[in-house]
Amino acid sequence: MTATTTTRTDARWAAVRAGLSRGWLETKYSIQEPGDVVWIVAFPVIYMVVLLFMRGSTVPGTDFALGAMVLPSLVGMSIGFGGLTGPASTIAVDREDGTLLRAKATPNGMVGYLVGKILLFALTTLVSLVALVIPAFTVAGDLRLDARTALLLVLIFVVGMVATVPISVALGSLFKTASQTGMLFLGSMLLIVPSGIFYPITALPEWLQWVGQAFPYYWLGLGARSAMLPENMVTAEIGESWRTAEMFAVLGAWAVVGMVLAPIVLRRMARRESGSTVAAARERYMSKGY
């Protein structure tokens, strides 16, 4: 290994460490903001209410609790939702306050920026998942909860975050204002429909099944179900298989695409930024009364 290669590697690792530090600080600030806390726990509270209403109900034709069937899918959906919708909305804000401009001026700054966002939204999504565990105790008797479950869920969570946050960052860089990222939220909601989260994917038309399998939501839900549901519940899945290897392969592919694409898109976007454009954007932002 040449001295130049070693220097570049050291610089990248320094950027990764800086990104982890920034992500941790941003997380601490985020959980101190009432608005952010409400956003983090809002959906788990809604899910909890839904699961509580499911108490006493069973999957048609079985004695398996309906809430236990739905909960793993909600876990997978929460991972995907936290990674795909949150980061995009922060890009416009970071552009307006000069954060991206400073990252552009730092060696490997975009890598550090991306690592920081992955950690930030991984931790805030983890808080949301912990809140979701509360209703789990009402249906836990029918779920598989052991060391295998814990290990598989941790792996799915980590891979899910790396697979979704960079893609969200790349997509968010295409929007000029934070309000425009609402389209990504709407798109995510539409993608949940064919992803087998609330309804068995095998009951959908075949073409819609293929649409669902093209995106992370389906695979995250499938992975969570494979970790938490009894083995006999696999009959409701495509090919009556959990397809664990395929699940990690697809999520891994999304992760690679995101990690390669996001820094490139961010750098191109940052090239169009300057001190004057940031100042103008900040002035527009402040004029709105924020």
Automatic annotation (TrEMBL):
Query: Which residues span the membrane?
Result: 37-54, 74-93, 114-138, 150-171, 183-201, 247-266
Q: What is its main location?
A: membrane
Q: Where in the cell is it found?
A: Membrane
Q: Does the keyword Transmembrane helix apply?
A: yes
- Domain of life per record: Bacteria
Give membrane topology per the record.
Multi-pass membrane protein
Q: Please provide the record's keywords in A-Z order.
A: Antibiotic resistance, Membrane, Transmembrane, Transmembrane helix
Using the record's annotation, list all stretches that form the ABC transmembrane type-2 domain. 35-269
What name is this protein filed under?
Answer: ABC transporter permease
The species is Promicromonospora umidemergens
Give the organism's phylogenetic lineage.
Bacteria, Bacillati, Actinomycetota, Actinomycetes, Micrococcales
